[in-house]
C-alpha cells in the first residue's frame, strides 16, 4: 500500500516534483472513504426524524447520530480540497512544462469520471423507473424539486456535465452536481495556466486562456443569476447554492486552494496534531453553532463555517505534506485503502437507493412513516439501507472504478482524435 495506489486513480499529469509520503497518501485514503460515508449517512438520515432533539431526553446514540449525520456538505468540500491537491497541484507546480501533456491529461480525467458516471446514470434510471412504477402513491418521486428530473434530456445534460449548472439533475441522483463542478475544474484549470506552458505555441496558449475564461464565465452564469434574485427555477435550472452562494465558483476556490497546498513551500502549522485538532474543532463548531436561529439571524455564518472547514483541512494537508516520514498515519492498515477504492462508486450510486428505500417504506408503512419519531424499526431500516449501499457500491466498483487504469491506458494508446490533436501541438515560437 503506497502512493502508487492513490495515483492509479489520481495520476499526476506528468512527472516532476517530490513524491507523496506514506503518511499523506494513507491519510488521504482515509479521508476519502470517511467523507463518502458521511455523505451516505447524511442522506440516509431522511428516514430519521429527531426534531425533538433539543426538547426531549435521548440516549447517547441518538445524540451521536444527530451530530454525525449533518456533515455531507463539509464532506464534499473535503473532496474538492483533495481533488485540487492531487490534480490541480501538479498542474500548478509544472505549469511551465516543456513537453505536450494535454492528451494524456484529458484521457486520465475523462476515464476517471466517466467509467463510474455512465454506469451510475444507468443505475439511476433503472431504480428510479422501478420506484416510480411500484410506489407511485408515496409521493417521494413527486416532490417539487423533482419536477423535471425524470425527463430523458436530463441524462444527456448530465453526461455533458451540466447538472445544477445549466440543467437539472438526472433522476434522483442529486450528488452528481459535484462531478459537474470537478469535471469543469479539470478542463478549465490547465487552460487558465496555458500561457505558462512552453510546449505549445503562443497562439494556442492564449487561445486556451481565453477559452478557459469564457467557460468559467458561462458555467457560473446560472448561479450568479440566482444569487442576484433571478428566478432560474422557472427556466428549468437548478444551480447548486449554499445560502445564496453559488457552489461552482466557491468550489473552484476550494479546489484551487487544494492545488496551492501542493506547491506551498512551508506549512502554516508545523504540528500534524495541532492541525488535525483545528480541523476537528472547525467541524464541531460549525455543526453546533452554525444552525437554527443563529444561522437564520446571521446567514453569513454559513460561509464562515465553510471557510473554516476548508482552511483547516488545507492546513492539515499542508502539515502532512511537510511532515517527516514514518509518522502515525504511515502505520494505518490496508482497510483504509480498500474502503477508499470504492468511495467514488459509493458517492455516485447511493442517492437513488436512498429514495427507493424511502418510497418502499412509505408504501409498506405509510407515506408519513418517515416523519414519526424513530422507533427500532426506523433505526434498523437506516442501518440496512447503509449496509446495502456499501455492499452495492463495492460490487459496482469492481466492474467500474477498479477498471479506471485499463480505460485510461486504452485512451492513451488509442489516441482518439481529440486527445491526439491536443498532444500533437508543439511550440513554434
From TrEMBL:
InterPro entries: Acyl_transf_3_dom (IPR002656), Acyltransferase_3 (IPR050879)
Keywords on record: Membrane, Transmembrane, Transmembrane helix
Gene Ontology terms for molecular function: acyltransferase activity, transferring groups other than amino-acyl groups
UniProt GO BP: polysaccharide biosynthetic process
Residue ranges the record marks as coiled coil: none
Protein name (record): Acyltransferase 3 domain-containing protein
Residue span, Acyltransferase domain: 28-392
Residues passing through the membrane, by range: 30-51, 63-92, 113-135, 183-201, 208-228, 240-261, 268-288, 300-323, 344-365, 377-396
GO cellular component: membrane
The UniProt record lists the keyword Ion transport: no
Amino acid at each position: 500500500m503506497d502512493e502508487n495506489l492513490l495515483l492509479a486513480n489520481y495520476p499526476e499529469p506528468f512527472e516532476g516534483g517530490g513524491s507523496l509520503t506514506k503518511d499523506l497518501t494513507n491519510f488521504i485514503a482515509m479521508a476519502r472513504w470517511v467523507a463518502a460515508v458521511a455523505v451516505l449517512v447524511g442522506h440516509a438520515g431522511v428516514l430519521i426524524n429527531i426534531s425533538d432533539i433539543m426538547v426531549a431526553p435521548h440516549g447517547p446514540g441518538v445524540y451521536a447520530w444527530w451530530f454525525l449525520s449533518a456533515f455531507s456538505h463539509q464532506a464534499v468540500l473535503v473532496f474538492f480540497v483533495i481533488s485540487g491537491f492531487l490534480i490541480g497541484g501538479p498542474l500548478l507546480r509544472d505549469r511551465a512544462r516543456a513537453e505536450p501533456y494535454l492528451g494524456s491529461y484529458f484521457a486520465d480525467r475523462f476515464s476517471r469520471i466517466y467509467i463510474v458516471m455512465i454506469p451510475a446514470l444507468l443505475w439511476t434510471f433503472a431504480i428510479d423507473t422501478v420506484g416510480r412504477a411500484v410506489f407511485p402513491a408515496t409521493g417521494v418521486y413527486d416532490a417539487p424539486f423533482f419536477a423535471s428530473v425524470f425527463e430523458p434530456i436530463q441524462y444527456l445534460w448530465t453526461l455533458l456535465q451540466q447538472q445544477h449548472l445549466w440543467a437539472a439533475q438526472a433522476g434522483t441522483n442529486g450528488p452528481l452536481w459535484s462531478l459537474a463542478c470537478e469535471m469543469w475544474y479539470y478542463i478549465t484549470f490547465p487552460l487558465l495556466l496555458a500561457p505558462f506552458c512552453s510546449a505549445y505555441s503562443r497562439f494556442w496558449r492564449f487561445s486556451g486562456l481565453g477559452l478557459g475564461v469564457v467557460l468559467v464565465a458561462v458555467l457560473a452564469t446560472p448561479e450568479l443569476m440566482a444569487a442576484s434574485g433571478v428566478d432560474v427555477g422557472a427556466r428549468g435550472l437548478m444551480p447548486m447554492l449554499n445560502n445564496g452562494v453559488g457552489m461552482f465558483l466557491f468550489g473552484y476556490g476550494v479546489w484551487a486552494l487544494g492545488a496551492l497546498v501542493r506547491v506551498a513551500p512551508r506549512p502554516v502549522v508545523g504540528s500534524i496534531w495541532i492541525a488535525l485538532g483545528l480541523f476537528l474543532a472547525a467541524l464541531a463548531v460549525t455543526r453546533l453553532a452554525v444552525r437554527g436561529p443563529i444561522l437564520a439571524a446571521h446567514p453569513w455564518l454559513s460561509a464562515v463555517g465553510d471557510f473554516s472547514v476548508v482552511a483547516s483541512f488545507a492546513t492539515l494537508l499542508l502539515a502532512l505534506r511537510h511532515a517527516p516520514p514514518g509518522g502515525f498515519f504511515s502505520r494505518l492498515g490496508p482497510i483504509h485503502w480498500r474502503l477508499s477504492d470504492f468511495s467514488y462508486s459509493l458517492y455516485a450510486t447511493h442517492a437513488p437507493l436512498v429514495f427507493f428505500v424511502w418510497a418502499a417504506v412509505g408504501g409498506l408503512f405509510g407515506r408519513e412513516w418517515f416523519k414519526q419519531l424513530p422507533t427500532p424499526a426506523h433505526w434498523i431500516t437506516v442501518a440496512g439501507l447503509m449496509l446495502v449501499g456499501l455492499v452495492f457500491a463495492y460490487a459496482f466498483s469492481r466492474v467500474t472504478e477498479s477498471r479506471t487504469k485499463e480505460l485510461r491506458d486504452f485512451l492513451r494508446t488509442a489516441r482518439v482524435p481529440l486527445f491526439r490533436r491536443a498532444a500533437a501541438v508543439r511550440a513554434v515560437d
